Amino acid sequence: MNYYELSNTVTPDTIGYKNGLWQKRYVQIYRVLTVVWSVLTLCLLFGMFHRDDYSSGMIKSCLLLFFAGIIFLVLMLIAVVNISAKRTENWSLQDRHDYNLAMYRTRYRNNRQLQSVVLIVMAKQQLLMSNYDLAAQALAMVDINCVKLPYLRDYYFCNAAVLFLCDKPGWQEWLDKCYAVPANQKQMTDMQIGALFLSENAKMDLCQAIYADTRIKHKWPTEIVVTAILVLYAGIFYGVGGLLSRGYHYRYWFELSSVLITYAGCMVLSLYWIIRWILFSDSVSKKSGGVRLFRKVILIVMWLCLMAAMVINLIISFIGMDTEKKAYANGLICMSTSDGYSTDEYYNIKVGPFLRRSLTFKETIKFGLINYDDSTDDSGNDAGDSGANDSESSTENNSQQFNNGSENTENENAGNENAGESLDTESKAVYDYMAAAGILSAGDAGTIRNGSTAKGTFYSVFETGEADGSTYENRLVYDRVSENGQCDLFVYEQLVSGSDTRLLGFYAVNKTTNEVFSADRNSWGGVSSREYQDATGEN
Fold first, then answer.
1. What spans are recorded as compositionally biased (Polar residues) (predicted)?
2. Which of 2, 289, 528, 538 could bridge 519 with an S-S bond, Cβ 3.0-4.6 Å?
3. Rounded CA gap, 519 and 506, in Å?
4. Domain parsing of the chain, residue ranges
5. pLDDT bucket at 395, cuts 50 / 70 / 90
């Protein structure tokens, strides 16, 4: 029975054979990981479609995460194979042969072409171990119809070497067949092969030539591992960034370092792989020198265009990146944003070392960043009342810490009083919107009366009346500017004599067009309507 028959159950108890069996397991493990990653991506997509803040850009982020993970797994599988090949360099001939035998029986079991290549390699190793019969058995299992020309030349050469080393006739016929196959740049020429068989120490020279052919030096796949890690890092950074909930953003230091790492890594690795490709194509190409030169020029021009595009994109990213001016011990972060002409400041709160989020209205009151008339929020909302009270003491005690935020806010509200015409126009736009929607229906709704609270906050009275023996007053109170700076925000509330203030709604007015957007909620918590979120950039 041929030792290399797949039905042969003899399994060598060697390190090489055991490591060869693990190659099949590596492939199976990576297949399972690919399936798991695909299932997780599908679950992410399914959950994304049910989010209140869903947008079409999230699909791109999910696909980016999916392909980054797949590319990472493929590159790591290639790296594992190369690492295994590198480890075999210091093994004995028997261990290397048994390693290939395990690959032949398992991983390459259904691939006749790879099986034939491995059989030729094992035949050479058997020749070096003086197992000429086993070498002949390995060559007998080769399917020459599946072998490419370079390996076909090796196949004929090995058959000639087996007969020559056994002192059997017929080796010259196999050698003639070897000469009939053209050699590539890495193979011995016909003259060199002929000299091996005709030298005085022919058998020794022949074995040395075969040994040199089997001693292939492998490199550690460092560049493959680095590329895989960079692809996964970039996919997670940009993919997760597109899936963050509304109001959440990366911290400045993390965003800056990640952008630099991904762009610099892409530039360096792309140049490295282009050089590797040029060197590889030159070693195997049979094209003329002019064609090879033209191909090199095209690759270099493409790389330069890619680098120019990346540099431009990097500059744009830096220009549009909001910076952190100061981080406070209580978690507050002072941010600075610029459009190239003017610079604005706003506040966020940190969420761990990598994320920050926009402040809620209650948090702006809590940190003393705005003044809010607590006489307009006697609605039993204890959190709002305590927040307003805390803001006064916080502003008095920590005005220097927050860059005199309370005083600046008072000046801003005073400015709003001076610019009453703008707020008056916006309040009338809200009145028209509410009247068209049928919200205004009671009392003397045709009369609008403007005023300001004790703290200088603008308001407009839309309705007054009497119900259940108590008088009430429905008024629109100016709140603040939206996070994106495009809208003024208002709170619509009802003041009832002898009772708590009741919130009736929240509205945003575009500063430029005076278009009105309703939040469709009547409490400080909850999620605003989609059009309100799109207009203001917040919940």
1. 392-402
2. 528
3. 5
4. 15-214, 247-358, 416-536
5. very low
